[in-house]
Amino acid sequence: MPLPTDDVVTALTEALPGRVESEATNIAEFTVDRSGHESAGLPLIAVYPESIEEVQTVCRIASETNTPIVTRGAGTGLAGGAVAGPGEIVLSLMRMNRILKISQDNRLAVVQPGILNGALNAALQEHGMWWAPDPASKDISTVGGNVAMNAGGLLCAKYGVTREAVLALKVVLGDGRLIEVGHRTVKGVTGYDLCALMIGSEGTLGVIVECTLKLQPLVVGETVTLGAYFERLEDAAAGAAAITRDGLVPAIMELVDLRTLEALDDFFGESISRGSDAYLLVQCDGPDSHATAARVAELLTMPGSIVETTTDPVESARLVNIRRNAFPALEAKGTLLIEDIAVPRDQTVAAFSAIREIEAKYDVIIATSCHAGDGNLHPTFVFQGEEVPVHIWEAASEVFALALKLGGTLSGEHGIGLLKRRWLKDELGQDQFDLQRQIKAVFDPQGLLNPGKVF
Amino acid sequence: MPLPTDDVVTALTEALPGRVESEATNIAEFTVDRSGHESAGLPLIAVYPESIEEVQTVCRIASETNTPIVTRGAGTGLAGGAVAGPGEIVLSLMRMNRILKISQDNRLAVVQPGILNGALNAALQEHGMWWAPDPASKDISTVGGNVAMNAGGLLCAKYGVTREAVLALKVVLGDGRLIEVGHRTVKGVTGYDLCALMIGSEGTLGVIVECTLKLQPLVVGETVTLGAYFERLEDAAAGAAAITRDGLVPAIMELVDLRTLEALDDFFGESISRGSDAYLLVQCDGPDSHATAARVAELLTMPGSIVETTTDPVESARLVNIRRNAFPALEAKGTLLIEDIAVPRDQTVAAFSAIREIEAKYDVIIATSCHAGDGNLHPTFVFQGEEVPVHIWEAASEVFALALKLGGTLSGEHGIGLLKRRWLKDELGQDQFDLQRQIKAVFDPQGLLNPGKVF
């Protein structure tokens, strides 16, 4: 049955004047995200609701006309999860970007989903608090997007993932009904944890329209930054493992491999790598930052390593930026397919070593940086041209199989979206895969919310 | 259709020799937990599987014969969630109590569900780690039970609830199939978070047969304990609020009211209360414990307050035991109905004050202690006799309505079980209640797992 697309566009336009956009030039951006994937064509229409009621109206019209909805934040996703195509409504939450409440007494904030993570944290700072989720995209990605993806980042080993930083959500279901899941309290055990279920569901279960966020007081103490250069990647990984085994909890622990260092040297036209094969960035915060940093330096000092420790902001920024510039430096070399596996921390070296073998086998370039505190690796394929070549997908497929073989996961923080659907069942197994699809059907029996994503 | 109960008992006995028990004197304990609720009669049989395969066998036989299963740990629940009655199989996991793996490199432990929380932590200590969930029952409750209830405790404001301390679970479904949910890695975003869904599901979605737990390194620094006595409860609550507002994060912050102090004075035959109307216990740990404690003392010092600060273990234990003896002291006064609401922290005083009004209205005794760091109150009804009198349920019902009115929840950490079913819909709303029941049906289409509980 063909969709009555004219009716949908008319109904949305009439119901929500000033909130719709269907000019091709203005909706073309919704056919892509930051994954490199592009949909088959333009979506039907984009709607920019400004209230929960308007989101409900969109969902009601979509439900009545059986029209798919792709909910969208800032479009910074790396897995194609927010890409929209023909016949689909784009539900942009970018105009719902207000902070509704900040409470120091309850250590929480209530926000609309379209606010940028960085903007929220700027506002929270004057209240002496922060929201811990720290994806690399934080200055350009929305809180709602972070929640929908269960975003990770650099700080997770110490400060947790997004799931641990959300208390409650208001969610509009596919048919327009509004539910509130979770609790405004720190504790709450009434029935199933639908709030946690919603976090990371990639727009497939409902539209997140309001977020009650768990905040933390600003970290006290002076931050100490260490940059360590190693002759061998194995030594850097062994150093990171020793830090974890010793019971230390740095805020940041990032490992950068030789391929990435080579790109950085070229990018800056100077020896960023200092001739080393691996670089480990460690940042220690909190009241014991100096004691922790001293012990970290001790553990990283070994034959062939150079360890720099600083509290100077400029020098610290230089050490941090070696890691932060990894992707810009690689982008200067070609198009990137940024992958996102996670393995148990003690399998990190095995993962790096197997990635080297896959690189040789497929004659590809894989530059890898790694959140060494939590075993989340970003093997990044560098290639020429727009489309991901078949042999790179084949190599990526081996990387995913490797992650599962080592007891890890297909995706640490980027999600499944479109790009990893074909491997999801390998990780979940048929039984869990079926359960997940049945849960999807409970929330969205018409199958209109972000169809074709995840499963 | 009557159940072929003889067939079930015969099938289980034949399939699992040495694992079953049906003598009345040996299964009578399963008709109660610590809630005071007693089921209508003896269950059919109790099974004590010793492996995952044996759990699967129990579930298969139950499924084939359409017989309900009540999964059971140590039976320390306070909401009737593990109480079994006529026609039901008790699936005791107490023999599955081994630690399968402890990894410092990955900061995780893999355990069977029947291990006691306290026993696990004793074993972890020599590896320099601990598992943070800290219910008051920790020495007598199982890890599996803690997970099934999403247990809380004293440390949650700083160290989180059980959900934040579980990485992955193996779960046997009602029909005997085994699934693995969650990730062994710190991060993982492949599909819906069924691990979080299982945590706190009170035995209604599956049987948790193996737990991969997220551990923390042992806390460094000297622990500082403060005991503060106040002329008015409002002052104690204001002190606790000031501590939170100031950005401090004590490990423990417990508020004890006048009714409880009176019971403690009687219990010990001396003036534990020192004539005060409220007592606040604060414990600061970690590298900044002394600085935090000094600031806490400053904030609690006000007209009419007495603040004691100590690092001496004996003196510290004395201050802690004032709180720890609250329930034993109250039990000496009569039978207890221990309730468990949570409210946003800034509503704590309002909650205490309204509880006083309910107490007067129904002419009952309600002694309340409160996890002041997270707004979780335990209004405890003290009465004579075994059965909870009707007017006490009526008063309790007003307490639950109060929690919802203040933006809080029916249950911070004890769960719904049997005792709070009738109020669950008030909190969730009809739409979410229906979604939760549909999720139950996805996992347990025959409705055999802990029937009649939660919903």
Automatic annotation (TrEMBL), chains A, B:
Annotated ranges, domain FAD-binding PCMH-type: 39-218
Keywords, sorted A to Z: FAD, Flavoprotein, Oxidoreductase
Pfam families: FAD-oxidase_C, FAD_binding_4
InterPro entries: FAD-bd_oxidored_4_C (IPR004113), FAD-bd_PCMH (IPR016166), FAD-bd_PCMH-like_sf (IPR036318), FAD-bd_PCMH_sub2 (IPR016169), FAD-linked_Oxase-like_C (IPR016164), FAD-linked_OxidoTrans_Type4 (IPR051914), Oxid_FAD_bind_N (IPR006094), Vanillyl_alc_oxidase_C-sub2 (IPR016171)
Cofactors that this protein relies on: FAD
Keyword Transport (UniProt): no
Name of the molecule in the record: FAD-binding protein
